[in-house]
Amino acid sequence: xxxxxxxLLAGSALLAAALTGCGQSxxxxxxxxxxxxxxxxxxxxxxxxxxxxxxxxxxxLNPHLYAGEMYAQSILYDTLxxxxxxxxEGCLAEDWTISEDGKTYTFHIRKGVxxxxxxxxxxxxxxxxxxxxxxxxERHTWLEMMHLLEGVSAPDEDTxxxxxxxxxxxxxxxxxxxxxxxxxxxxxMIEGSTKDGVNGYVGTGPYVLTDFVTDEYAVFERNENYWxxxxxxxxxxxxxxxxxxxxxxxxxxxxxxxxxxxxxxDADAISQYVDSDQFTVSLSDPTSTRHIVLNTTHEIxxxxxxxxxxxxxxxxxxxxxxxxxxxxQPADTLYADTVPYCDVExxxxxxxxxxxxxxxxxxxxxxxxxxxREKNGRKLELNLLYNSDxxxxxxxxxxxxxxxxxxxxxxxxxxxxxxxxxxxxxAGNFDMVFNICWGMPYDPQSSLAxxxxxxxxxxxxxxxxEDKDQIDEAITGILTSxxxxxxxxxxxxxxxxxxxxxxxxxxxxxxxxxxxxxxxxGVHFGTDQYDVPFGDxxx
Amino acid sequence: MNLGKRFxxxxxxxxxxxxxxxxxxxxxxxxxxxxxxxxxxxILNKFADYSLQYPLGTDQLGRCVLSRLIxxxxxxxxxxxxxxxGTIGLGALLGITAGYFRGITEEVIMRLVDVMLSFPSxxxxxxxxxxxxxxxxxxxxxNVFIKWAWYARMIRTGVMQYxxxxxxxxxxxxxxxxxxxxxxxxxxxxxxxxxxLASLDVGxxxxxxxxxxxxxxxxxxxxxxxxxxxxxxxxxxTSNPVQMIAPGAAIVTLVCCFNLMGDALRDVLDxxxxxx
Amino acid sequence: xxxxxxxxxxxxxxxxxxxxxxxxxxxxxxxxxxxxxALRVQQMPVITEEAxxxxxxMLGLNKPFLVRYFDWLAGCLKGxxxxxxxxPARTVAGELARCLPATLQLAAxxxxxxxxxxxxxxxxxxxxxxxxxxxxxxxxxxxxxxxPAYWVGLLLMWGMGVKLRILPTNGSGTWRHLILPAFTVSLSYISTYIRLIRNNMLENMxxxxxxxxxxxxxxxxxxxxxxxxxxxxHTCIVxxxxxxxxxxxxxxxxxxxxSWPGLGTLCISSIFNRDYPVIQTxxxxxxxxxxxxxxLFDILQTVSDPRLRRxx
Lengths: 539, 276, 312
Description:
Chain A is an alpha+beta fold and 539 residues long.
C-alpha cells in the first residue's frame, strides 16, 4: 500500500514539474500540492502505474469459458492470430497457410514464446488448449466452426493443424476472438481439462495477474518475458466501482486514472468534461447497435402489428439528441450499413406516432379505461428489462415508458444487474429487453449464428416467428457458403426478414467512451469493443 | 384536563399539525397546484434551470421537478400513514395486552416479539421484498410486519412501569374494575410514549419507504416518490448536483415536522406535566 | 436471579430454532426451482425435465420438508451454506466471510462515534434543559433525525469528495475511507440516543427518589451523575447493546451509497440478482446475532435493575 502511494506521489511530482513547465499551471498547482521531493530522485521515467476502473470483479478468467472480464483476458492471454484494422496478423502463430479447398489450416507457431510460468508455448501447448476447448464443445456451439471441426493435430512442435469438414469463411476471425481460443498454460489445466475450472490464470500476454481481492481490485503487472513489444505501463490496478457517479468522483479525486467502456460513463458526465484541461474525453467510432429485442413468443408481442407499432412509436432521434447529446447517432437497422455484408436496402421504421396508433387501432387494440389500450379484455401492458449496470438504459427505459404511455401502451420497467439480466435474457424471461450487437469482429456472422441456439436472448425472442426455420437455414447457409454473391444474397434475406418481422427496435449506434487524466496518452480504441488497449497507453 | 384545549395552547403542536395538513392538502390538490404534468417528458429540455414554466427546473427526462415534488406527496405521505396506522394498531394492542395481563399471554406474545425482533427491521424488509417481489404493497406489508414488535415491546415495558405505580395500586385497592384501570390509567399514561413514538414513526416510515425507493426496491418509476426522485438524482450527482436538493429537502422538512409534532404532543399529552 | 438467567438462556434455544426455521422457509418460498438453478450453474445448455428430476433427486429435494430442514440445519452448523446462484464458483460462506470484516469495521467505527458523542451530549441537554446548548442540540437533532442516511451520504460525498476533495468517496482501505460512511451511519443513531438519554433523565428527575435525595441535601452533581444518569443509562445500555446487530444491519444502505465492500452491498446486489442463498444466510446471520445480543443485554438489564428482577 505504502509503496503504491509513494509511487503515485513520485509520479505526480514529475508530472507537476512537467506540466508547470508547459504552462498548464492550473493542473500543475493541483497535483503539486501532494508532492514530495522523492519524486526528483526517481529519475526521468514517467508514471508507470495506471489505475483503471471496472464496474465489477474480474471473476473467472478461464479463457475457455465466458464468465470473466474480457479486457483482463485479452491482456493475459494471446490467440493464434490477431485481428487488426488491416486484417489478420500473426500472434502466437507467426504465419499460416490455408489449403486450396479451404479445409485445412496449418499454423507455424512462433518460436521461443513461453507462458509466464516458464512453460513453452509450442504446438503441443496449443494442442492441449484445443483439446480442452473441444472437450466442452457443447458450450461453444455458438461458433459454427465447432460443427465443422474434423480434427486438430500437432505434427511437430512448431506446427499446428486444424482440419474442417467444409470451408468456413469466418474461421480466422473466430480464432482471433479472445474467447474461447486464447491459450492458457497447460499447467493451469486440471488433468488436461478447463471446463470445470483452472488452477491459475497464466498466459503469454503482455501482463500477468499478480494480486486480486474479490470485488475490490485486481493488479496486473508487466510480463517481463513478453514476446512482443513491451507495454509502457508497468502496473495496472483495476478497482471495482459499480456506481457511475462514484467512478466519476474517484476520477476527479485522482483515485483512478481512466474510465473506459460503452456504458461506464453517461453523456451528461462526458459533456461536462469536454472542455476540461484536466481530463480528456475520447469517443470511438460506432461499434455496435443498441437495440431492444421483442419476444415474439409473448402473447401480445406475437402480433406483428404491435411490434411494428412499437417501432414507429420509438423516437430514435430524440433519444440520440436528448439522452446522448448526439454522441450516439440514431440507428435505423439492426446492423449499421458499414458492417460487412449489411449494406442492404431496408426501409427504416420512421418515428410516426399517428402510424403507430393506426396500426394498433387496426389490430383491435382500442383505448380502454384510464387510457391504456385493450383487446378482448387484455391490457396492452409490457415489461421492459434493462441492465442496471449500464448507465443509460434506465433513462432510455423511462423515456420510452412515458412515450409509449401517450399511445396507450403501458410499459413496466425493471432493472437487474448484468449477470441476472443476462441469465433472464438467455432463458427468454422477458417481454422486451435491451441488447446490443456484438460489434466487430463478431458482427454479423457470429451474432447471427448465435441466433440459432440459446446463446442469447435472440433465440428465445425469435421462437414466435413463423419464418424462424427459414431464417435459421439461411444463416447456416451463410456460414458455409463459399460463393461471395450467394452469401451476400443470403445475408440480405436474413436481414430483410428480421427487419420486416420487426423483432428488433434499433435505438442508437453505441460507441466506446473513455474519460481520463489528460497526462495519460495513447488512449485509443481496439477493433474489439470489449478490448481495452492498455499496450499503447503511457504517461 | 381538556386535551383539546391543551393542544390548542401548544403553539408548536398546532403549527406542525397545520403544516402536515397543508402538505396533505397539497397532495390531494396536486392536479390544481402542479404547474405541469409530472409525467410529461421533454427530453430535449433536460436539466433546465429555474424558470417561470419550470419553477424548480427539470429532471433527467425534462420533467417538471416542482410538479413531481407535489405529486410525490401522495405516495410519500400516503404510504407512510398507512404503514404507521397498521404498525401502531397491531403493536399497541399486543403490547398492552402483554404488559398488563402477564402470565401465559405475555409469554406467548413476547416470544413472538422476540422472534420478530430477532431480525433487524431493515433486513427483514429487504428479505420480504426479495421474496414477494418489488411492489409498494409488499413494502407496506413488510414494514408493518416487522415494526409492530418493536412497539409491542416498548409499550409493554411502559405498562409494566406504570403497573406498579402508586396511583394504579390505589385504584386497584379501592376496587376499580380492571377495564377501568387499563383504559383510564394505563392507556393515558403510555399515550405520551405512544404519541412521541407514533409521530417519530411516521418520520421513520417516510424515511424507510423512501430509502427502499432510493435503492430501487420500493416505488417504481415513473411514479414521482421523493426517494425514487433521489435515486434518479444520484445518477447525475457530479454533473447536476442540484437535482438532489429539492426532494431531499422536502423529505427533511416533512420528517422534521413530524418529529417536532411528536415532541409537542408529548408535552400536550403527558398527564404529569400538568400539575393540578 | 440464577434461575432467571438459566431460564432466559433456555428460552433462547427455541428462538434460534424459530429464526433458522424462518430462514429455511424463506428459501423454500422462492419461485425458482433450486434444481433448475443448479443445472444452469453447471452451464447446461438445454434444461430438460428429466434433467431437472434427476437433479432434484441428487439434491434431495424430493425428501420430506422436515428432513430437508434438518439436513440444511446440519449443513449450517458445519458452516456449509451452499453456493451462490449467480457466481457458482463462490460459496455463500466464503462470500460472507469476505464481506464481514469490512462491515464490522464500519459498524465498530460507527458505534464508537455514537457512544462518544451521544452520552455526554444527552446528559448536558438534560441538565441544562432549555438552555442554549439544549436548544442548539435539539435543533441539530431535529434536522439530523429527519435526514435519510442515503441523502446525508450523497451530500457528504458531493461536499467532501467532489467539491472540497478532502476525503475519498468510495471503497475501503485506509481510515480516511472510513470517515464518511461511519459518520453517515452513526448520525441517525446519535440523534436517537441523545434523545433517549435526555428524555430518560428528564423522566428520572421527576421521580420521588430525586426529591428524596434533594431533601437529604446531596450535592446536585452527585444526584445528577450517581442517580439520574445511572438510572437513565439502564434503558440506554439495553437499547445500545441491542442496537449493535442493528448497527451491523443498518450499514446496508450506507454501504451501498459509498460502495463499501461489506455485507450490505453484498445483500442488495444479491436481492437484485435473486441470489437467494446469500440473502438467506445473511438474514440468518443477522438473526442469530440479534438473538445473542438481545439475550446478553436482557440478562444485563435484569442484573442491573432490581425492579425488573422477578424473584417472587
